[in-house]
Amino acid sequence: MDQLLAALRATAFTAFGAPTSRMEVVGFVTGALCVWLVARQNAWNWLIGVLNNMAFFALFITAGIYADAWLQVVYLALALYGWWAWLRGGEHHGRLAVTRTTRAQWWTLLAVGIGATAALTAVLAHVTDSSVPLPDAATTVLSLLATWGQARKKVESWWLWIAADVVYVPLYAYKDLWLTAILYVVFLVLCVIGLRSWLADVERPVPVPA
């Protein structure tokens, strides 16, 4: 295991004067594939996402982006739920249909988002040596809320991802994770594609298995 981690931490190439590890390359490839599969409503995105989470956990711990690192662990649990929900979480235990977020759900998301961001920022500022507590906390909370919406196939989850990605790009550039910053630019493009695709399917009935 130690040899594997050492190999993944080794430099693959240098970008913008900063070394890019093999681990970051793995995160780039699996991350781009995962979001592309989400946009296509392919349930395999959840399993590819597990590989992405493992790579980014190790990467972010090394870079001192602690909230985003432990976020990957939460993603693992959400991936199992999302896999089940997409395949069996719809009516009559069929495939889940794309729907809109209700007003009540929006108010809940807003309250949870503000409260969780404030609490996590305080923890990062006082318990860790994080140099970016607020953006780290805000992107973590936005990503969790977006993942919940994605697991339930809420079309507005794409807007939450877009908001998170807009902050992620400069955050990772600041931490010299240039390949990851570029990946999140790619994510922004894929989010727009996914949003348009899901909007076309919103409220469209899903066939019930025989």
Annotation keywords:
210 residues, two-stranded antiparallel ribbon, 8 helices
If you had to describe this structure to a student in words, what would you say it looks like?
With 210 residues, the chain is mainly alpha-helical. The protein has one domain (22-201). The protein is built from 8 helices and 2 strands, in the order αββααααααα. The protein has helices at 2-9, 22-39, 45-63, 66-88, 103-127, 133-151, 157-174, 178-201; strands spanning 11-15, 18-21. Strands 1-2 form a two-stranded antiparallel sheet. A hairpin with a 2-residue loop joins β1 and β2. The longest helix is centred in the middle third of the chain and has 25 residues, at 103-127. It starts with a helix and ends in a 9-residue tail after the last helix. The mean pLDDT is 82.
Helices and strands, with pairings:
Layout: H1 2-9, E1 11-15, E2 18-21, H2 22-39, H3 45-63, H4 66-88, H5 103-127, H6 133-151, H7 157-174, H8 178-201
Antiparallel strand pairs: 1-2
Helix pairs in contact: 2-3, 2-8, 3-4, 4-6, 5-6, 6-7, 7-8
Briefly characterize the structure.
The chain is mostly helical and 210 residues long. 73% of the residues lie in helices and 4% in strands. The chain has helices at residues 2-9, 22-39, 45-63, 66-88, 103-127, 133-151, 157-174, 178-201; strands at 11-15, 18-21.
